[in-house]
Amino acid sequence: MRQLLERLADLAFRRPWAVLLVASLPPLLSGLLLLRTPVDLTFTGILDRGNSEVERYFEVSHRQGLGGSLLVLLEGREEQMPLAVRALEESLAGRPDVRAVVPPLDPSWWREQSPWLVERDLFDAWLEAARGGRGDVGALGRRLAATRQGSEPVGARLVQLRLDRDPLDVEVGKWQFFALEEAATEAVRRAAPGVSVAFSGLPAIAAQDQARTLGTVQRLTPLSLVAVLALFSLVERRFLGLLAVLWALLLAVVATLGLIGVLTGGLTLMETFFGVTVFGLGIDFAVHLLVRLREERARGLAHAAALLATLRGTGRGVVSGAVSTAGAFLIVALAPDPVALHVGLSGGLGLLFCLVLMLLLLPPMWTLLDRRDRRASGAGALPHHRELSVPLLSPLAGWAERRPSLCLGLSAAVLVVLGTGAARLGFETDLTRIFNRQVPGVATVQRVGELYGLNGAPWVSSARDLETARDLAARYRRSPGFAQVVTVSDFLPASAEETERRRAALEAALPELQARQVALGGLTDIGEVRLEGLTRLAGVVLPEGTSAREALESAVAGVGLLVRAAEGSPLSLDGLPAAMRERFTGAGGEILVLAYARGNTLDGREARAQRLTAQAIDPEATSLSALLEAVMVAERPWLPWVAAGTVAFVTFVLLLDFRSPRLALLALVPVLAGVGATAGILGWAGVSLSVMTVIVLPLLVGLGVDDGIHVVHRIAEDETQPYSVAAAAVGRAIVMTTLTTCASFAVLLLTDHPGLESMAWVMLVGMPICLLASVVTLPALAVFLLGRRKSAG
Questions:
Q1: Quick count: other Cβ atoms within 10 Å of Cβ 531?
Q2: Residues 6 or more apart whose Cβ sits within 8 Å of residue 282
Q3: Half-sphere exposure of 589 (CA within 13 A, CB side)
Q4: Helix, strand or coil for residue 459?
Q5: How far apart (Å, rounded) are the C-alpha atoms in residues 507 and 545?
Q6: pTM of the model
Q7: DSSP structure class, residue 269
Q8: Which of 65-69, 411-415, 647-651 has the lowest mean pLDDT?
């Protein structure tokens, strides 16, 4: 490795233009592969389709034509509700992305169909009272209107939208949710002023979170970029030098994406995150090399000699750190999970490309800039040749080397105190605590639960016939885990035999019913003085607190319902309203049973408990909540061997690089201290890890390993140099990498997004700890492992 780096330094000095051209051409050519690489920016593209629950959901969704489903909650004055529902239907029914608008059923439909739907005992009592027997025919006729199927909260309506495509199958940013929301809101505002419109459901929440979060990040990204460039300018003050670093990073990104497309057959959402890793670690390669080059030039070395010393010394540390971190990422890519595959490949290949391009592009570019600078300034010293100065580094490192026992004792005590907080560290499974806090869909989910007892993501079972559907619904209702169960069989007579019995009874009683309807109707013209007596004589019951006219009108309506049922046809599946058939039947005619579970539908742990309960009733039951479980709390049996393989590989690289177990152990000090203390601090602070922190944890590990490798390489490079001097010299570069990384992540604290904030806290806490461990703990431990150096004084 040393000879290769020396050869590279020689070529960069003698033939800089040739090296630049040869190094830039292959990445650009590999970037041409992107022109034919398919890009899948849908949420489903990163789901593990090998997960049986994920595959079941999409298979059922596509086979039954379920598509995407949204709930629209309308709230306002009760008298405005019909107008609002009608306006919503008219505004959305013709949209190409809406397959069906399913409004709540009109209560009048329930009343008209009640003779076929009420229980047998109630029907018999109702018919007997209507024919002149004993009983309150009005009260019996109104009974069904008060049942749960036909009831709606006063001043609220819940409308279901069936979308043409599942939003999870639509590319991120391409689903026109806000156009849909705007059309619905504007139509309702015009027809029924004062009625609010709110969308519920996981697709709506995801769209709202994405819009608010991406908008905030887009506004903050320039601020982050300016901060990082301002800090980087402390190391590289030449504009062309800065462009050289950016050019190397850009080529690394292009080459990585092109190769991943070839290896995996396409790109997914996860590739949008790998830039954090490549830029975070890649720019650190440049910082370490630049700081070392300035240090050598400040010592008075000519450019060629300084470049040789930089690549021969710090270059080895850059290679070792990059290979160990890239290898760890590539081991992750071996896991049978699409997220792990794409994160591992993008991180591993990105770092390898970044390493090669930094070593090939920066030295010749620095050579060209040095020649230009010497022509412009003559023999005078240039500002960018001055050594970078960072206060307190040397005193801290020197104290650690002079008082190693005290330093290690304090370090161990601090790590123990902080480490105990790791036991309090939890993993967040509630999606509402990861999404943006300003997402209105979350509040709508809670409001729907308060009004209707629904959680927005029902468990779906399918049945071939009504009897099977009734059986499934009955079993769901007997389970305490479900708040509401709805199926089309609830809106049909209990059996064909019972329907025929009622039809025959109604036909036989029709003459009597018609005569009674006429007789009772004639009484409505009687004056109030005689009405009460005549009403009682007609056999109409007058409930307490009810006037004679009210009781009479109710009785007339009750008899009229039976007359119309006798004159019409029994209720059948084909006779149901189109909205009801759309909601409760699949594309192949299967009858759907919708079971709404109790509890939070956006919590992965609760989603798992709901799934186990539902599948104990129907093993084929599925729900959108199954995807939430797969993302938030899915079993990953490959994690232990991936973690073990990563540790083994990093240890192997360090042993191969240093040829000494003691030096390898020293190199691991910053990352061990950084990860352990960070976990403890986050635990004490009550910050939970989440699926989003998985993105930055490999970055923290990679940076921590790099810090230790560079310090130990400097220690091994000159055995006469005190440990504190080596740690302080490398510490200047580590300070810069820590500042640039923290500056880029700090802006995430302004997003009002718990998931992004947790990512920021991991880096903002972990990076400074790795820095302190590199310049303080590592030199102190080196005294015990390697012995005190005489020149330490």
A1: 18
A2: 248, 249, 252, 350, 351, 354, 358
A3: 5
A4: strand
A5: 35
A6: 0.78
A7: G
A8: 65-69
CA-nearest of 222, 216, 220, 275 to 250 is 275
Ranking 164-173, 617-626, 681-690, 746-755 by mean pLDDT, the lowest is 164-173
Residue 79 per-residue DSSP state: G
Measured in whole angstroms, the distance separating CA 713 from the mean position of its chain's CA atoms is 40
Alpha carbons 659 and 272: distance in angstroms, whole number? 38
Backbone conformation region of residue 787, classed left if phi is above 0, alpha if psi is from -120 to 50, else beta: left
| pLDDT over 90 at 776, yes or no | yes
Please provide the average confidence, as pLDDT, over all residues in the chain.
Answer: 82
Contact status, residue 725 vs residue 719, Cβ threshold 8 Å: no
Predicted confidence (pLDDT) at residue 666 exceeds the cutoff of 50: yes
Q: Which amino acid is located at 762 in the chain?
A: V
CA 159 to chain centre: 26
Tokens of 391: 């206060």
Strand 459-463's sheet: what is its strand order? 459-463, 591-597, 482-487
Place of tokens 């880096």: 763
Taking Cα atoms as reference points, which of 625, 755, 751 lies closest to residue 695? 755
Q: Which of 257-261, 347-351, 550-554 has the lowest mean pLDDT?
A: 550-554
Residue 462: enclosing H or E segment and its boundaries? strand 459-463
The beta-strand segments (E) located in 210-295 are none
**Helix, strand or coil, per DSSP, at residue 198:** strand
Average pLDDT (19-33) is 87
Q: How far apart are CA 481 and CA 596, in angstroms?
A: 9
Residue 381 pLDDT exceeds 50: no
Q: What is the pLDDT of residues 420-434, one digit of tens each?
A: 888 888 888 887 788
Give the DSSP letter string of 608-652: HHHHHHHHHH-TT-B-THHHHHHHHS---TTHHHHHHHHHHHHHH
Q: What is the 3-state secondary structure (H, E, C) of 543-567?
A: CCCCCHHHHHHHHHHHHHHHHHHHH
Q: List the structure tokens of 734.
A: 């580590």
Q: Tokens in use for 325?
A: 């971190």
Lowest-confidence region among 54-68, 137-151, 388-402, 466-480: 137-151
Give yes or no for a contact between 445 and 204, defined as CB atoms under 8 angstroms apart: no
What span, in angstroms and rounded, lies between the C-alpha atoms of 122 and 383? 97
* 64 pLDDT more than 70: yes
Q: What's the rounded Cα separation, in Å, for the pair 345 and 278?
A: 12
Q: What are phi and psi of 603, to 5 degrees?
A: -105, 125
Round to whole Å and give the CA distance between 773 and 771. 5
CA dist list (Å): 527 to 305, 523, 546, 555: 118, 9, 17, 18
For residue 78, what are the CA distances in angstroms to 101, 144, 265?
A: 21, 20, 55
The confidence score (pLDDT) of residue 134 equals 61
The yes-or-no verdict on residue 508 having pLDDT over 80 is yes
Query: Which position has the higher pLDDT, 3 or 411?
Result: 411
Name the nearest CA neighbour of 310 among 659, 6, 731: 6
Q: How far is CA 66 from CA 459, 484, 590, 775, in A?
A: 12, 19, 12, 59
When pLDDT is cut at 50, 70 and 90, the band that residue 21 belongs to is: very high
pLDDT surpasses 80 at 46: no
569 by Cβ neighbours in 10 Å (0-12 / 13-18 / 19+) ranks as exposed
Q: Which amino acid is at 233?
A: S
Within its chain, how far is the Cα of 648 from the centroid?
Answer: 31
Q: What are the Cα distances from residue 478, in Å, to 471, 473, 599, 616?
A: 11, 9, 17, 12
Reading the block at residue 541, the tokens are: 């019951």
Residue 485 has pLDDT above 70, yes or no: yes
Mean pLDDT value of segment 609-637: 85
